Amino acid sequence: MTVYAYARVSTPDQHLDGQLMALRNAGCERIFQDHGAGGLSSKRVQLQAVLEAVQPGDTLIVWRLDRLARSMFELVNIVMDLHERGVAFRSLCEHIDVNSAFGELVLHILSAIAHFERALIVERTVAGMQAARARGVQFGRRPVMDSEAVQEAQCLLREGLSVEEAAGEMGVGRSTLYRYMAGARQSDKPGKLVGCPQA
Q1: What is the pLDDT of residues 11-39, one digit of tens each?
Q2: Is residue 90 domain-shared with residue 161, that is, in the same domain?
Q3: Cys bridge to 8: 19, 34, 57, 164, which one at CB 3.0-4.6 A?
């Protein structure tokens, strides 16, 4: 049973001295540190390392909750994962120990807040997308083939190439070419003939 700790500062000019002193005084045996690591999880290499290092029966301590996560949703996910793995968690400043009855209550409250926060984010995102669509903004992947590319593929087929050969020339898959060609046929007016470019 090992007592681990995680300490983090957001910018390189900040210091970890205060956090490290408090964590050592709390009995931490191994302290993982991220220097100049902001909100991006890809920069918090040591956080991922300590989460992988802890085992059932171990304890993870942080100086303050915002050192562990940058959002309530992320915080609850990390703490719940530790709890399910049998790893105790403590935060010194907030006096939270999830292995106590009060800590369990706090964890459930934080979880409810996190889900509420997530729901608000989703609601705002949907509202923003609806407003953008009303302004004419289009979402989704860009089409693989535009009308000119479809016309060129039609010409290759008329020149005798197979669908597979034409798809290879256009740099797309055969099923993709079939799909775009079918769409072009549906959108063409009766009697409309697409001409091939002249050499």
Answers
A1: 777 888 899 999 999 999 999 999 876 65
A2: no
A3: 34
